[in-house]
């Protein structure tokens, strides 16, 4: 299985998880916070929506401009790509501060946040499909918070999917805590 196929499979699984696990929850459960400084389920998803608003557009532009049929199936990683991926891997339990404009803490959020997330997943699946005609090792994606640095198309796709996986797992942990609290 190629990296793009793996990323597409993970994206589809995340989409199903969100639809199955969160769509039927009431607003109180979706906004439940295990601690004041923690994020709710909707805040986890809003954080990802904010990243998707930037990276989906940047990826679409880069893929369109580099869709010359010179597909390179394997991704080579820059130091920035490796560092970014290591930071967002779900198994990296270390908490990281997010940049202020990407922090959704205390936002007024509702079910539209879930709908937007699912729409971004559809867009991402289309980008992953379109990337099959692209040199994945082309440095073309400006880093959101420091646009002078650029990541490669392939490592950016992997970063986006891995970052989403990390925060969907976080949202699932919040759901477990909300269910326990509601049962108590």
From TrEMBL:
Top-level taxon of origin: Bacteria
Entries under Gene3D superfamilies matching the protein: dinb family like domain (1.20.120.450)
Pfam families the UniProt entry points to: DinB_2
Positions of the DinB-like domain: 13-171
Listed InterPro entries: DinB-like (IPR024775), DinB/YfiT-like (IPR034660)
Annotated protein name in UniProt: DinB family protein
Protein species of origin: Pontibacter fetidus
């Amino acid at each position: 299985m190629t990296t793009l196929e793996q990323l597409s499979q993970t994206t589809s699984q995340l989409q199903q998880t969100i639809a199955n696990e969160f769509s039927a929850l009431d607003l109180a459960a979706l906004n439940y916070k295990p601690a004041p400084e923690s994020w709710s389920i909707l805040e986890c998803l809003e954080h990802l929506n904010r990243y998707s608003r930037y990276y989906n557009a940047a990826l679409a532009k880069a893929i369109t401009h580099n869709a010359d049929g010179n597909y390179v199936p394997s991704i080579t990683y820059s130091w920035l790509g490796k560092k970014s991926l290591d930071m967002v891997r779900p198994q990296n339990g270390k908490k990281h501060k997010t940049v202020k404009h990407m922090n959704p803490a205390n936002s007024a959020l509702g079910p539209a946040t879930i709908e937007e997330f699912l729409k971004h997943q559809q867009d991402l699946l289309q980008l992953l499909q379109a990337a099959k005609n692209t040199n994945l090792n082309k440095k073309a994606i400006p880093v959101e918070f420091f646009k002078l640095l650029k990541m490669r198309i392939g490592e950016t796709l992997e970063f986006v999917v891995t970052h989403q996986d990390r925060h969907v797992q976080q949202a699932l942990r919040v759901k477990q805590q909300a269910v326990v609290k509601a049962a108590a």
